[in-house]
Design brief:
The protein is of the alpha/beta class. It has 13 helices and 13 strands.
Amino acid sequence: MILAGDIGGTKCNLALFEEHGSRLQLVFKRRYATCEFGSLESLLGKFFFECAAETGETPEGKIDAAGFGIAGAVVDGRLVANNIPWELTDSALARRLNLKLEQLTLINDLVATAYGLVHLTPQDFLVLNAGAAQLNGNQALIAAGTGLGEAMIIWDGSRHRASPSEGGSADFAPRTEREIQLLHSLKKRLPRVSCEEIFSGRGFRKLHEFLDPAVVHPTFGEAESASASEITQNALAGTCPVCVEVLDWWIDAFGAEAGNLALRVLAYGGVYFAGGIVLKILSKLQQSSFCRAFADKGRLSSVLSKIPISVVLNEDAPLLGAAHQALGSVAASRRERHEILFELQPEREGQPL
């Protein structure tokens, strides 16, 4: 049995899969609010309890491997994250699951999403720019939600390999006079202005307050991230001119940041977009200057305009990627055991049968 998790700053998806050769069959899945739990271990306890109540069987003691895509960096087996308040180490999690470290896979959530792409169908993608993909070219993945995640998908000569990135923590680079003024304004109240401060959910209210601080909406008394949904809904409905301007500006600037990522990775094989924000504004993305802003890179504009751009519609992509990475660790362990057993077999040549 394979346990998989997509662990984010707002929500966590957990699932159990049964192994059928190289395929996985879903057994049980649940979604939880991250803020309701003090640790991943306590969340797992809730998940196992609900699984047993619904299926009649507890998964504890039956898990062969586990894989988790986590919104943050995993450094020396320890989670370093901006938006998840938990202390998390691979050793403690392995003990909780009664697994060896080699049976546990902890990876960045964007890396998990990248590895999940190959397990999706064409219906799981919305093409924004068909472009002309370079065969075996590098690819890139960017996701805007509670935070801003970025990943590189590099062709190594035989296959694509996903590499994590903390590009969301990179410095915000203004392109226009208005964005320069925004940066100056934010610098007065923030020690540092990262891309994530603009291109995550908490960026919408920053733009709104910059454009017109006199216009206040109900969620403005809550955490900044709570305003993203309200502002985007107002913009899509056309009920607030400032919200409309915020969304147009955010989409244009986000497209430009995605183009920056494409330049850094030379993502001639395509760029993929994921995350809750993109899914909520799909209709606007298709009508906006998003693709133009993505490709607006001077002499390289004609090159970037040929890069395929797609939105990942299936929110289970990171869960599938984490599960299949865990399945891969099981397969590798079995191959290793088989090779050891083979080497331990006595030399039979010349021996009677």
